[in-house]
Design goal:
The protein has 264 residues and is of the alpha+beta class. The protein is built from seven helices and twelve strands. Helices cover 34% and strands 19% of the residues.
């Protein structure tokens, strides 16, 4: 009687390649060893562990490096020292329930004139420099063919609640903390306008348009500049609020760090 003809099992799978995982692990270990010992040099722009270079053109790692620098007081101050801005270190202070600041500076000059010295946390000061250097000035050159020479601000530190101007009131500190503005910890700065090289002043109140790209003929280059400045701020600050957010912000940009991600 003829023996049955065997047929291949349709469900059979090729033998598992057991060498793949060990080889991959070995390659990863070799890469880490070479990187740690300095035998493998990764260009700074591709190295997420490299310190923030405040003067380097922004790339896909800039946001990560900026957040990393802001997360540690020493790293933040080291990065701030690269900027060339004139500032004084401020002692840590508690000024009221859920109010006060730490790791803050009094910014006197930022390469552009300021309306007056302003107290900022180191993270805000660092983000301000990155925005002014890599977003604001390029926007001015692109839309207005000149530089910004002065920035008008409405202040930074104020012991107050969100979107309110009153001073701190007695109460439960934990309850107040939930309603405090980022201004209450010097983690916010309000910008009202800009002065150009030719002396022209551009203000958010007078020149902002909600959709300048859709009404270019009417809005003009000033509105396009403000729109670009606003959008650029969203790259370097955690929170950016402008006239498009609500009536309280009709005359300024609110720029903050440490809060929720917002770009309105």
């Amino acid at each position: 009687m003829p023996s049955p003809i065997s047929t291949p099992d349709a469900t059979a799978r090729p033998p598992r390649r057991r060498w793949v995982a060990p080889v991959l692990c070995s390659l990863i270990a070799a890469f880490i060893y070479a990187f740690v010992t300095g035998r493998l040099v990764v260009p700074e722009r591709f190295n997420p562990w490299a310190p923030l270079n405040v003067m380097a053109p922004p790339d896909w790692l800039t946001g990560y490096k900026l957040a990393h620098a802001r997360s540690d007081p020493a790293r933040c101050l080291n990065a701030l020292a690269q900027t060339g801005m004139a500032y004084d270190l401020l002692p840590d202070r508690i000024t009221g329930p859920a109010c006060g600041f730490e790791n803050a500076v009094r910014l006197r000059n930022a390469g552009v004139r300021l309306g007056g010295p302003v107290a900022l946390s180191c993270p805000v000061a660092l983000s301000f420099f990155m925005w002014e250097t890599h977003a604001l000035q390029p926007a001015a050159q692109r839309h207005l063919q000149q530089r910004v020479t002065a920035i008008d601000h409405l202040g930074s530190y104020a012991c107050r609640n969100v979107n309110r101007g009153e001073a701190a009131a007695p109460g439960n500190a934990a309850a107040l903390a939930g309603s405090r503005s980022r201004h209450a910890t010097a983690n916010a700065l309000d910008i009202a306008g800009f002065t150009l090289e030719n002396g022209k002043r551009i203000t958010i109140l007078n020149h902002w348009r909600q959709n300048p790209q859709q009404e270019t003929a009417r809005s003009g280059s000033e509105a396009l500049f403000l729109s670009s400045a606003h959008d650029g701020a969203c790259r370097f600050f955690d929170g950016v609020l402008g006239p498009g957010y609500n009536a309280v912000h009709r005359d300024h940009f609110h720029l903050e760090t440490g809060g929720y991600r917002m770009c309105r």
